[in-house]
Design goal:
By secondary structure, the chain is of the alpha+beta class. The chain has three domains: about 35 residues, no CATH class; about 260 residues, SGNH hydrolase (Rossmann fold), CATH 3.40.50; about 190 residues, Jelly Rolls (Sandwich). Helices cover about 25% and strands about 20% of the residues. The protein is built from eleven helices and 21 strands. A seven-stranded mixed β-sheet has the order 4-3-2-1-5-6-7, with helices on both faces. β16 and β17 form a beta hairpin. The longest helix has 19 residues. The protein is globular and about 70 Å long.
C-alpha cells in the first residue's frame, strides 16, 4: 500500500508539474507489490551467499572512468582483495539523465567491467542489464562535474535513483554510495566553472556541502571523497597539475590518487604502503597519492596540507653511463611494443626511463611545460630510415599551439631530463606526424635541445603534416652542471597554421660514441 500510495503521489506531481511547465518528475519503474494478508512477501528472494568478492557498480560518466577504470583493481589485487568493478558510462551525463534512463531502460551506456585486471567494454548496454549482471555490493552515483556543487541538482533526482537502485538490485544487502568528484583546475575555462565564479576552492567547498547534504537527504552513509584527495594532492609540490584538461584527471598520479581513495574507503584497509603503483608513477609521487587519499578518508570535508611533500624529490646523479638506446612513445594510449617507455600524460613528472633492454637507466623524464592534449590522427604506419616505429607509436601524439585554439593558448611545451651522466653525451632523435589529408598548410615543429653551455641550443625542424618518412637528429649533447638536458617544443618558423600547432610522437635517446 505504501508503494501504491507513492506511485499515485508521483503521478499527481507529474500532472501538476506539466501544468506549470516545470521539469518532469520521472516515475520509478517498479511493479505493484504482491502481499499476503499478513503483509509478508509470499515468495521472498533468498539472500545471496557472500562470495568474498567486493562488487562495485558506478553509474556515471568520464569522471567514473578517471577514478575507477585504472588502478583500483590492481590495488585490491596487491592487498589480496578480490574485486569486480563495473562502470556504466555516458559522457557528460548528469543524475537527471540517469533518472530518465531508469524509466526507458535505454541501451545508452558503455558498460566497462573489470574482474581480472583487464577491463572489457560493452557498448549499447541498458541499466537493467548491468544491474542483473552481478550481485552488486555497492552502487555509486555522481553528479555531472559542473553541477557537482549544486545541491538542488542532487535533490531533484537522487531520491528517485536511490529508490530505483534498491528496488532493482539483486543483492538485498546492496548499499547506495556517492562519489564525491573534484574541483576544476584554477586555469579551467569550462562553462560549468562559472557556477563557482571560476574559483577552485569555492567549487571544492560547494561540492563538499552539496554531497553531504544530498547524502543526508536520502540516508546514504558512504561517500568516497575523491575530490578531497585531489585537493590534498594539490598542496604537494605537484601543485595544480592533477588535470589533463579543463576538468578530467591526468592519467598517472591523479588517476592513481582517485583509485587509492576508492580502495581505502571501500575496503577499510589503509592504502599507505600498498605495494602496487603503476610504472608511470614515481615512487615519490605514489607516496603523495597514497597519503592524499588516506588523509581524505580520515578528514573528508577539509583539505589536509601534505607538508612532507612540499618539495620535489632529490634525485641523485647516476654514475652509470647509458649503454643502450631509450625509446619514448608520446601519446595516449600507451604502446604495447616491447622496449618502449610510454608517456600518456601531457604533464608527466619524474618518470624513470628504461632502456631498450628493459633496464632502469636512472634518467628521469618530466614535462615541465605541459602540452595541450592528445592527438590520435597520426599515420597508421611509417618508414623512417634507421628507426622502426610501431603503429601505436606513430598514430598518436601530444600537441600544443601558440595561438588561440578552442578558446585557449597553450604556449610552448618543455621536457626536462634529469640525473644524466655528466661524463657522457647523448644524441636525440624526434618524430612527429599528423594526418591532415590534402592540406597544404605547414605544421612545422621546432625542437631545441639544451645541455651544457658548449652544447646549448641545438635547433631542429620537422614537418608534421602527413609525415611518414622523416625524423630529425641532434648532435651529441652533454648535460649541464646539474645533470640536466632540456628539450623545448614549439611551432617552427615555417609553420603556416593559424593556431601555430606543434606535435611530438616519439623520442629516441642514444649514447654518443
Amino acid at each position: 500500500m505504501t508503494r501504491l500510495f507513492a506511485i499515485l503521489t508521483l503521478s499527481f506531481i507529474m500532472i501538476m508539474s506539466a501544468s506549470c511547465k516545470e521539469e518532469p518528475v520521472y516515475p520509478l519503474p517498479v511493479d505493484d507489490p504482491v502481499e499476503e494478508p499478513g503483509g509478508q512477501d509470499p515468495d521472498p528472494e533468498p539472500e545471496p551467499a557472500d562470495d568474498g568478492v567486493l562488487k562495485i557498480l558506478s553509474i556515471g560518466n568520464s569522471f567514473s572512468d578517471d577514478a575507477l577504470l585504472e588502478h583500483l583493481w590492481e590495488l585490491g589485487d596487491a592487498a589480496g582483495v578480490d574485486m569486480v568493478i563495473g562502470i556504466m558510462y555516458i559522457g557528460g551525463s548528469a543524475l537527471s539523465q540517469h533518472l530518465a534512463n531508469t524509466g526507458t531502460d535505454a541501451p545508452s551506456y558503455t558498460y566497462r567491467k573489470n574482474f581480472d585486471g583487464k577491463p572489457v567494454s560493452t557498448p549499447n548496454t541498458s541499466l537493467s542489464k548491468a544491474m542483473a549482471d552481478e550481485n552488486w555490493d555497492y552502487i555509486s552515483f555522481q553528479e555531472q562535474s559542473g553541477l557537482s556543487g549544486i545541491y538542488e541538482s542532487y535533490a531533484s533526482s537522487l531520491p528517485h535513483l536511490v529508490d530505483w537502485a534498491k528496488e532493482n538490485a539483486t543483492n538485498p544487502a546492496m548499499e547506495v554510495i556517492l562519489h564525491m568528484t573534484w574541483a576544476f583546475p584554477q586555469s579551467s575555462q569550462y562553462s560549468g566553472f562559472a557556477n563557482y565564479d571560476y574559483e577552485q576552492m569555492t567549487m571544492f567547498n560547494s561540492i563538499v556541502d552539496a554531497v553531504n547534504r544530498a547524502a543526508d537527504l536520502v540516508g546514504i552513509k558512504t561517500i568516497v571523497p575523491v575530490g578531497t584527495a585531489i585537493q590534498n594532492g594539490r598542496t604537494s609540490y605537484l601543485g595544480d597539475t592533477f588535470n589533463r584538461d579543463d576538468r578530467h584527471l591526468e592519467r598517472t598520479y591523479a588517476r592513481y590518487t582517485a583509485a587509492c581513495t576508492w580502495f581505502e574507503k571501500m575496503t577499510g584497509t589503509g592504502v599507505v604502503g600498498n605495494p602496487y603503483r603503476p610504472s608511470t608513477v614515481s615512487e615519490y609521487d605514489a607516496e603523495i597519492a597514497q597519503h592524499a587519499a588516506h588523509a581524505a578518508v580520515v578528514q573528508p570535508n577539509e583539505v589536509t596540507v601534505l607538508t612532507e611533500y612540499k618539495n620535489p624529490p632529490v634525485i641523485e646523479d647516476t654514475d652509470e653511463p647509458l649503454e643502450y638506446p631509450v625509446y619514448i612513445d608520446i601519446g595516449d594510449p600507451a604502446t604495447t611494443a616491447a622496449g618502449w617507455n610510454s608517456v600518456t600524460s601531457v604533464d608527466l613528472k619524474d618518470f624513470q626511463l628504461k632502456d631498450s633492454q628493459g633496464n632502469d637507466t636512472g634518467i628521469f623524464f618530466s614535462i615541465t611545460k605541459p602540452f595541450r592534449n592528445v592527438n590520435r590522427s597520426g599515420p597508421e604506419s611509417v618508414s623512417v630510415d634507421g628507426w622502426e616505429l610501431p603503429a601505436d607509436v606513430c598514430s598518436d601524439s601530444f600537441y600544443g599551439h601558440l595561438e588561440k585554439f578552442q578558446s585557449k593558448i597553450s604556449g610552448p611545451a618543455e621536457i626536462t631530463l634529469r640525473s644524466l651522466n655528466k661524463e657522457q653525451k647523448y644524441i636525440f632523435t624526434f618524430f612527429c606526424a599528423r594526418d591532415f589529408k590534402d592540406s597544404g598548410v605547414s605544421n612545422e615543429t621546432a625542437y631545441t635541445v639544451t645541455g651544457a653551455e658548449t652544447d646549448s641550443g641545438e635547433h631542429l625542424y620537422l614537418e608534421a603534416r602527413n609525415n611518414v618518412s622523416k625524423s630529425v637528429t641532434s648532435k651529441a649533447i652533454a648535460p649541464d652542471e646539474n645533470g640536466n638536458i632540456v628539450i623545448g617544443i614549439t611551432a617552427g618558423p615555417n609553420n603556416e597554421r593559424k593556431e601555430k600547432m606543434f606535435f611530438l610522437n616519439a623520442i629516441r635517446i642514444e649514447p654518443a660514441e
